[in-house]
Amino acid sequence: MMDELSLKLNDIKLPDGVSWWPLALGWWILVLVVLVCVGLIYFKYFYSSKKSKLIEYARGVLSEEYALWQRQGNGLIFVQAISVLFRRIALSFTERNQVASLIGKRWLERLDIGLDGKPFELGPGKILQHGPYQSRVDQDMGDLYLLCQRKLDQIEGFKN
User: Would you list the domain boundaries of the chain?
Assistant: First the structure.
């Protein structure tokens, strides 16, 4: 038999530990998923915040213009302001080429989207078709004001 001390044995070498870099494929996928989720949440928050601020601004303008009409009775200024306001809102949430060229009946049809009936095309909103371009508008603006508030409520509640 051989003597244990005479054997030429090498020391036991343990394998290296698992390196933290480069990351395994699963970690890369997890990082990517987290980044996408954070991006979507940020985008949703930013878009929602922008929309809320715009609707809040629009409500203020609508109220101011209605109060001005009640004091002065100039329907033309009110109708022009409402027309400009809703064009700006439409341009903020829709591609320019889909909204900027709309006039007349097609513009009123666009405003009617999401509302029951056709209040812009057939109701108090029809004044927006020709009213801004007339020299004088003599009509009660109370119904138009309420219709515009309904439209702002509908825009605010619309989920993209």
Answer: 57-160
